[in-house]
Write the structure tokens for this entry.
Amino acid sequence: MHGFKNGVSYVSNLCEISDVIAVEEHWLSDNKLNLVSTVHPDFVRYGVSSMNRLLQTKIYADRPFGGVGLLWRRQLSSRIKVLGANVAACCLAVQFNISKDKSILITLVYLPCFTTSSD
């Protein structure tokens, strides 16, 4: 998304043609993750913020970063199960039950690149 405000219209358009949408780089803190739920009225979400660690330690500089989330059509909620989320590592695992005996594991991970190189 390169920030929620930058990507919200693109995600809203995806909601018109998709049932499940993965997002990364929403740059939202935990107390603002509810904004993802406002993208489309037919969708619900689960998300993880990368900002929580910085806000808890009160160390913050530069711009916000990271974050992952999953949006799915509301009528699919009975088929979606959040298996786990790790705020420290900024990852999320969700099981999507396609049928009685088939499911898909969806894993989202924010992997920032820390380097001093300009390449």
Summary: The chain has a mean pLDDT of 82. The chain has two helices and six strands. The longest strand covers residues 91-99.
